[in-house]
Amino acid sequence: MKRMTKHFNEATAAAVLVASTIFLIGTTSQAQRAYKLDQDIAKLNRFVQSGKSNPASAQLLREGRDLIESQHWQQAAEKFNELIKGFPKDRDLDAALYWYGYALQKQNLKDEAKAPLLRLINHFPNSSWRREAEALLVFLGEQNAVKIGKERDDCEIKILALQSLFQADEERAIAIVTESLKTPAASQCQGFPAAALSILGSRSGPRVVPILLEVARSNSDLKLRLTAIKRLGDQHNEQVTDELIKIYDADRTKEVRIQIIRALVESRTPRGSAKVLEIARTSDDPAMRQIAIRYLGDLKDPASLDELIRIFDTDKTPQVRSQVLQALSERDDPRARQK
To answer: Residue 51: helix, strand or coil by DSSP?
Structure first.
């Protein structure tokens, strides 16, 4: 029993790392953008509160700020444009240019958004809004900004540049990802290799899968391996599923095995589901059995429900039965509730 508890505790710690990796893959870009907007609005608030602008232009800046915060993008763009045209020499013209471009891109007016941003960079090279304008231009795919962004040490801008490059020149983008994976992490901006791999893995095709498989099998960075495995599961491909099963059978690293179980479930392939069922029924690792049972609850199909009930009825191991009950509690089915 002590040995089983030890295995379970180790697997729980490994599952935490796996879950955090998955969470970061799925939410980092969205969270970074939301946090970045909050930072930019806070910066704009400081500009508004400084009270050093012309009273009339300051009023337009405040009104534009309020419209940005309430996400009224068209009205915000009109307000900042009014400031730009009415007060062409205002001390906060650079801020107005940035937010005008921002409000335009939120309306999907990408070409129109580039003009005020480029004007800001060209006319106000020392502006405190220059970095934000450069990042937004990279996000919009402005090619000169993308080229400069790839050469910058700023990780956020480099990631945005890589995303844009995938749209314009996929071969070049894949080459950059491949080179990043070969370069020591210490010589790159923090987080770039994992972000680059995740961007690559969000795509599909004959060039993508072999790179992901190579990383998943043998990369020395565990987080990169977990990222690759997650993205392989997203391919929803039986041949990829077979490769993941081979890695699971050959590799005893707990974090890797947990990530593969989850990837097999999320692949929604028959062979992936069958492997997870096999692990839940017969694995010689009690902790992996419990992990597989937990993820079986996510399949939401009759076969997995039948298997969970069968395991509960035949297995008397307290930890296993407890995990089955937890998985059954998440199923909206009368047979599950009977347990």
So the answer is: coil
Integer Cα distance of 81 and 4 in angstroms: 66
CA 303/CA 274 separation, integer angstroms = 10
Annotate 192-203 with b (16+ C-beta within 10 A) or e (fewer): bbbbbbbbbbeb
Tell whether 193 is covered by a domain. Answer: no
Residue 183 lies in a domain: no
Domain span at residue 291 reads: 206-338
Counted domains in the chain: 2
User: Domain containing 225 — which CATH number?
Assistant: 1.25.10.10
| Mean pLDDT, rounded, for 126-146 | 81
* Between 296 and 39, residue with greater pLDDT: 296
**CA 316, chain centre distance (Å):** 40
Tokens representing 132 are 């934000």
Both 127 and 210 in one domain: the answer is no
Same domain, 217 and 325: yes
Report the 3 state secondary structure along 97-163. Answer: HHHHHHHHHHCCCHHHHHHHHHHHHHHCCCCCCHHHHHHHHHHHCCHHHHHHHHHCCCHHHHHHHHH
- Report the distance separating Cα 36 and Cα 42, nearest Å: 10
Residue at token pair 């902790």: 287
231 & 332 share domain:
yes
Whether residue 209 is predicted with pLDDT greater than 90 in this model: the reply is yes
Q: Is residue 71 part of a domain?
A: yes
Tell me the H-state helices in 183-301. 192-201, 208-218, 222-233, 238-250, 254-267, 270-282, 286-296
Residue appearing with tokens 């996929």: 170
Average of per-residue pLDDT across 38-43:
64
